[in-house]
Amino acid sequence: MPFLPSLLDVPPALSVKALRVHERLCAVYGCPIPYFRTQDPLSELVSALLSHRTRNASSGAAFRQLRARLPTWEAVRDAPCTHVQEAIAAVTWPEQKAPRIQQVLRCITERRGGELSLDFLGELPVREARDWLEALPGVGPKTSAATLLFSRLRMPALPVDSHHHRVAARLGLIPETTAVGPSHRLLEAQLPSDWDAQRIYDNHEALMLHGQRCCFFQNPACQRCAVLDLCPTGQARLASLGERPGAAPGD
After folding, report:
1. Residue 55 — pLDDT band, cuts 50, 70, 90?
2. Is 101 in the same domain as 46?
């Protein structure tokens, strides 16, 4: 299934830069990057809802406990809300996420005529599938993209997390004032329209890993950055510190 191109008019130079960043970071982080799991899309959606502002280890533990206590999504949907809240206690704001997850499950059941499954999304164009998901309560562009890309559907939708967003903004791929939500369409429009899910996944993972391992929120390691020559933020930072790109600190 082809990646649905955006209607945004992207300057050619920006697309060229995005591809150079992708190629450099893929060389550093070893693309193609293996998928970290294979779940059905409904499970991936619930995982994404649990992960909001929560560490991966905690959200993963909460997901496993939820499935252990309530082994079907119908059971999660129909259980007393307090039972769901107790099962996901490891996440941030379980008192908010429990009723939201149940609301989402009820909404899917209603919209699908009694069926509680998202497998049908694999038959839709990417944009249509994302719009369907984003009509659910509490589901934004990051969650819709993660549901399609990370699940066994393997649909080429680009998620943007905080690390990905920070790296993109510092590189000048998006304006610094752009919020994470609107950045999805801007960043996906810079990538080739015929990229498959693996390349989209590699792009997200490479920029995310770079944010985690080099382009830190505080004190980024600009001197060892593989894309420093493409990064106006990093170059300006080193200049302000009186350092030369490629020089050891203090040289």
Report:
1. confident
2. yes
Q: Is the model's pLDDT at 178 over the cut of 80?
A: yes
Query: What mean pLDDT comes out for the span 130-134?
Result: 98
One-character DSSP codes across the chain: -PPPPPSS---HHHHHHHHHHHHHHHHHHTSSPPPS----HHHHHHHHHHHTTS-HHHHHHHHHHHHHHS-SHHHHHHS-HHHHHHHTTTSS-HHHHHHHHHHHHHHHHHHTTT----GGGGGS-HHHHHHHHHTSTT--HHHHHHHHHHSTT--------HHHHHHHHHHTSS-TT--HHHHHHHHHHTS-TT--HHHHHHHHHHHHHHHHHTS-SSS--GGG-TTGGG-HHHHHHHHHTT--TTSPTT-
- Domain membership flag for residue 248: no
Which residue segment(s) compose the domain that 182 sits in?
A: 12-34+161-230
Is residue 178 included in any domain, yes or no?
yes
Task: Note whether 51 and 136 are same-domain residues.
Answer: yes
**Res 6 pLDDT > 50:** no
Tally of domains within the chain: 2
**pLDDT tens per residue across span 115-127:** 999 999 999 999 9
User: What was the pLDDT predicted at 9?
Assistant: 83
